[in-house]
UniProtKB/TrEMBL annotation, chain A:
One Gene Ontology biological process: transmembrane transport
Protein name (Swiss-Prot/TrEMBL): Carbohydrate ABC transporter permease
Record keywords, A-Z: Cell membrane, Membrane, Transmembrane, Transmembrane helix, Transport
A Pfam match: BPD_transp_1
Organism this protein belongs to: Paenibacillus lemnae
UniProtKB/TrEMBL annotation, chain B:
Subcellular location: Cell membrane
Stored InterPro entries: ABC_transporter_permease, MetI-like, MetI-like_sf
Major localization class: membrane
Pfam families, per the entry: BPD_transp_1
Any one Gene Ontology BP term: transmembrane transport
Keywords of the record: Cell membrane, Membrane, Transmembrane, Transmembrane helix, Transport
Name this polypeptide is given: Sugar ABC transporter permease
Keyword match Kinase: no
Recorded topology in the membrane: Multi-pass membrane protein
GO cellular component assignments: plasma membrane
Organism: Paenibacillus lemnae
Similarity comment text for this entry: Belongs to the binding-protein-dependent transport system permease family.
Classification via PROSITE patterns: ABC_TM1
Chain ranges of the ABC transmembrane type-1 domain: 67-279
């Protein structure tokens, strides 16, 4: 057998193995999707089959009973505002930290970097938010998410801004621009792809999270989708068709984002893989 | 020419620094103080109690078990996600017809909420559930387990679910790393007569080191901070068999034992920092050497 044939044979074997392996991922997800259209007795078999009758009405029931409309809007508000706050503050800070090469700026960079490692102190954060008088509010959660994501964003922005030549800043400066002018006119247009990456990373992690809402959103009118789903799961533990429909609905926004914004996710991952 | 000082004013650092400090750093710092107090929900006065909270942590069987479980989970997921992640990445970096499709499939669970995956797996992992069903169907009924109700294996099951969900994320980082390795190295190695294993050992692994480092750090730190998987799959049960540090903190918070809860959090902070920072420095050095 020639070398080329050998490689071809090997690739075919690998491909068959991988396709079999991928069933381990696909089957549980299909079980959820098919189950979400079944009636409440059919779904309890938890076996992979097409629904006898496709009940689209499950989704309507869950939407109304589970209060998903409100939870969706809360989620959009929290993820949207914390992404924007995070992008604005982190990119501005990284610009300065990347340009100044002093002891102070490297100290500040490390100070931010610690946030990638250290776990947050939840109970004392609640205390701080209580002192400030907005415990239980959506505002508190927005600030907390902005703080939690600062480390990662600064890491990503700093790496990118260092690759932008300083000469560009100096030209703008000679034309009379100040710090903010340089940042807005030179840096901001060049870091738009990084903004997209940060926005998507923050959106996905915040949208999917249940820890922070569990501790900080005490009133059900402020709940996000995963927390509403968790609560629904506790109350309707017999109606697995509705639970599955609820899970699918929670996943749709991130799936859509993933499909349309894949390239920005990949560039975020590449930054991590290559820079280390 | 104006100096760097006035051109790059620290004013732009302030907003990020303020939010990060107030909502992340200050809570961590006052956490150190509260760890040494008897801070409770039902008491107005807080007094200093020295090392009492920490003594209690290391004498309470449930708390010790929670710490042990956290380490088991962290180590099991670090190994599982990285070994499988590298294997998948290497396989999906070959010229396969369905490779884009397969990459998307393996990556897809990691974009979903841990809550979603944990709820899907709850019925599948029951004694009469699909996991045991499939094992029996392929003749491996001896491997059937009470996955979520047997105290001796429950934490491993939860680690397994986490590996199932997140290996694709690690795979994607490894793939990005693999694609940055020039094909020339492999061609040269083939000409010199190196087989697949030798190419992997002497070309792929060393050049993949930055990706390995970031993945080890991400999985280790994420593993030590585990909460949602355990919270949704078992709530720490059966009994306290699958408690981890994250779920214990929730419980002490609910019971109003805030001083104790903060002490546990402080311990986690110290553990994560003491483990990751030396590891980070060590890896940095190694990376430069390679």
């Amino acid at each position: 057998m020639s070398y080329v044939q050998k490689i071809k044979l090997r690739n075919t074997v690998v491909e068959i193995l991988l396709i079999l392996l991928s069933l381990i991922i696909i089957l549980p997800l299909l079980l959820m999707i098919f189950g979400s259209f079944m009636n409440s007795t059919e779904v309890l078999r938890f076996s992979l089959r097409l629904p006898e009758k496709w009940l689209f009405s499950n989704y309507l029931t869950v939407y109304e009973v589970g209060g998903l409309g409100r939870a969706f809007m809360n989620g959009i508000l929290i993820t949207g505002v914390s992404s924007i706050v995070n992008i604005l503050t982190s990119s501005a800070a990284s610009f300065i930290l990347a340009r100044r090469e002093t002891k102070w700026s490297s100290f500040l960079y490390l100070f931010f970097f610690m946030g990638l490692i250290a776990p947050m102190s939840i109970i004392t954060t609640i205390r701080i938010v209580q002192w400030m008088g907005f415990y239980g509010s959506i505002t508190s959660v927005i600030f907390i998410y902005s703080a939690l994501n600062t480390a990662f964003s600064v890491f990503l922005y700093s790496g990118f801004i260092r690759s932008i030549p300083r000469a560009l800043d100096e030209v703008a400066f000679l034309e009379g621009a100040g710090t903010i002018g340089i940042f807005l006119r030179i840096i901001t247009p060049l870091i738009i792809p990084v903004n997209a990456t940060v926005a998507i990373m923050v959106f996905m992690s915040v949208w999917n999270d249940i820890t922070i809402p569990l501790y900080f959103l005490t009133d059900s009118s402020t709940w996000t989708m995963p927390l509403s789903v968790y609560n629904f799961y506790g109350r309707y533990s017999r109606d697995w068709n509705l639970i599955f429909a609820d899970l699918v609905m929670t996943s749709i926004p991130v799936l859509i984002l993933y499909i349309f914004a894949q390239k920005y996710i990949v560039s975020g991952l590449t930054a991590g893989a290559v820079k280390g | 020419m104006k100096t760097t000082k006035s051109l790059y004013s620290y004013t732009l650092v302030w907003p990020a620094l303020a939010i990060y400090t107030v909502f992340f750093v200050v809570p961590a710092l006052i956490g150190f103080y509260y760890s040494f107090t008897d801070w409770r929900l039902d008491r107005l006065e807080i007094s200093f109690v020295g090392w009492d909270n920490f003594k209690r942590i290391f004498t309470d069987d449930t708390l010790i078990l929670a710490m042990k479980n956290t380490f088991i989970f962290a180590i099991a997921t670090v190994i599982g996600k990285n070994v499988l992640g590298i294997a998948l990445a290497v396989a999906l970096n070959m010229k396969l017809k369905s490779r884009n499709f397969l990459r998307a499939i393996f990556y897809s669970p990691s974009i979903l909420s841990v809550l979603v995956i944990s709820i899907i797996f709850t019925p599948l992992l029951r004694t009469e559930g699909a996991v045991n069903g499939i094992l029996s169907a392929i003749g491996l009924s001896s491997l059937n387990q009470a996955w979520l109700t047997d105290p001796s294996i429950v934490i491993w099951t939860i680690a397994g679910v986490s590996i199932w969900q997140h290996t694709g994320f690690q795979m994607a980082i490894y793939l990005a790393g693999l694609q940055s390795i020039s094909k020339d190295y492999y061609e040269a190695a083939t000409i010199d007569g190196a087989g697949s294993w030798k190419s992997f050992r002497y070309i792929t692994l060393p050049l993949l080191l930055p990706a390995i480092n970031i993945n080890l750090m991400l999985t280790l730190i994420g593993g030590l901070k585990v909460f949602s998987e355990v919270f949704v799959l078992t709530g720490g049960g059966p009994g306290n068999a699958s408690q981890v540090v994250g779920t214990i903190i929730l419980r002490t918070f609910g019971e109003g034992a805030w001083g104790l809860g903060t002490a546990i959090n402080t311990l986690l902070f110290v553990a994560v920092t003491l483990i990751s920072i030396p590891l980070l420095l060590f890896m940095r050095r190694k990376e430069v050497a390679e």
